[in-house]
Target: Odorant Receptor 4
Amino acid sequence: MEGIDFEKFFKIQTTGMKMALCHPDTKHDIYWLLKSFLLHGQYSMIFVFLCNSVLIDISKHDYFNAFRNCVPVAIYICNVFEYVMLIKHRKTIGKLITLMRDDFNKIPNLDSRSKSAVFEYINNSTWIMKNWLFFFFLMFSSIWIFIVKGIILSTYYAAKGEFRLVPFHDMYYTDYIDRNRDSNLFIFAFTYVMGINYTCCCTMIYLCALPLGPIFMLHVCGLLELIIIKFENVFEKDNVNERLNEIVKDLQYVYGFVEDINTCFTFMYEVILKQTMI
Model:
């Protein structure tokens, strides 16, 4: 077995984080601020419209639509917390990625048994990445559900002689937009694109945060497996003190790695669990 290319192995994850502008290597300068504004500006604008729509629905005692619009509002709030945590702990996450990269570079120097143990957990991480990709496409395909629904309903109304454009997500924007949305193609397209952008941003941020913790923890499991292998028959060989000292250093390294994971992801995964319930 040979070592693995870290960047190639985590290409999906790193690409997603770079697209969301939350990768540890992303420079935080004026260009980052501008790109963040362009990326998240419409995202936040829809959030404001949704909050306003909820208030309007409540004032009209339309609690069903109010509750329906509260769901994307809650998802936005959870995503903001997750994104803030990714930005806040970007240096620590970058440190963990660097440590993993260094550990992967040491794989060719391991014996065959240690390599097999390490690659077992690497394969588990691969399974997570594959499911991450599948889950991404599954969530992304949900956009097409709304698009197809709009096409079918628009066709249905046209067949009845009452043609009207069906929005991506039916909600209250402003009096002007609501009055002209069905008759003005530009306004309709604007609201439609913003709805799609909102869904894409929610999906991208959620999936940037979701796989990181399990991937890091599986790496820790691989490190612990190497320590177990080292500890076997340690007293039956020479240089016992030296070997024990090496094991202690490895354990300290693992404890530090786990501490950094807890620092970065404890609060984030509490938010993710609550978001999943929504």
About this structure: The CA atoms of residues 122 and 219 lie 7 Å apart. The first helix runs from residue 6 to 9. The two ends are 44 Å apart (CA to CA). DSSP finds ten helices and no strands in the chain.
